[in-house]
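From the pipeline queue, job 12 of 40. The input is one protein chain; the requested action is below.

Action: predict structure.
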Amino acid sequence: MKLTFHGGAREVGRSCVEVSTAEHRLLLDCGLKITPEDTEYPTGLKDPQNIDAVIISHAHLDHTGALPYFEHQGLRCPIYCTRTTKDLTRILLEDAFKVGKIQNHHLGYKRTDIKDVLKVIKLVKKKERGEIDGARFELIDAGHIPGSATIKLEAEGKKIIYTGDIKTEETRLHKGARLEFIEDEEIDILITESTYGDRDHTERTRTEYKFMEAVKETLDEGGSVIIPVFAVGRAQEILLILNEERIKAPIYLDGMGIRVTEAILKNPQSVKDAKKLERAFNRAKKIRSRQDRAEAIRRGGIFVTTSGMLTGGPVLHYLNAMNHSNNAILLTGYQGEETNGRLLLETGEVFIEGMKKIVRCKVKQFDFSAHDGMSQIKNTIRTIRPKKVIFMHGDEEPINNLLEWAKAKGIEAYAPKIGETITIR
């Protein structure tokens, strides 16, 4: 058996691992990486028409975004994932195509390729075993976003766990991933994400308390609150937190988070408490037009809106229209390099319609990460006790930190580079 890392190795983005055996060529995820210059796809993937199957861990574009690209290149195999992942993938791929065209990115595929990809998706329930010509797999709840799964794969007598993106801590939206039952099995390979492999997250209830403190303080001073969110997962969690509080100010939901929440509510099994989410969603006033948006800005309140890193979407309209010192921008997650969100944190400025603007609003950042922190990643390794562990989906520092820890513990560990192949005997 050989594992080839076409993407997601010593980087965050374009996750794609090829599992090659005497009988199969399988892909675990098939994502893209969006940079300020262009769109980057997995590299070195030869003869995509000979791939037997793709198994998708979750809907985020860094795990699904390359599917239509390789469909255009000849990928003609079944794609396995949960129903929620399929529904969210449809939304995210369509949005990525629209945004890519607006930004003149070279996508390398057509809109029809998205439709063709969706046609060949085969739905798998969590904890239900699937089979691909003798290779068996199972999807286990990963606790990351609705529909997300850790993949367990058995082929050529080897057992592989591919975490995808994983969150073992319980949140308002999800129960944590539960991997304890795996500890009684002999796992040959654990391929784990390493996004936060060099640091831990603030305790969740404390983060929520500080967040709500900032919301109330701004409202008490007569200001409005702009909350940039990721459409999948973060938007829904923030709505749940806000709905628990007896706040008189109106709560507005704008952008792709509306359509995503509607899709999640059609798959109630994908979240911890769908009824609570429905109540929170119903309480929020939906912004569906420019007129709605103008009226909401006039009235003021709490604005939950995409995009989470201020790279596009309605949030830029709010920033432009509500750029006053009595208002607040509460960032709810990681701000990637060369994004508007990172620029705001580092310089107090953002780009809106190509023009750099000074932001006069109060700015605070909160860690609502949907990934495990360093201690949780280590605990997962100790729980599963694999013969070998492979670190991916992380930048150099977190990857190297986990690699040093594993080797100090006597664990056989690897941190491959893009294009590298590891042979499993």
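Job complete. The chain has two domains: 2-199+371-423, 204-365.
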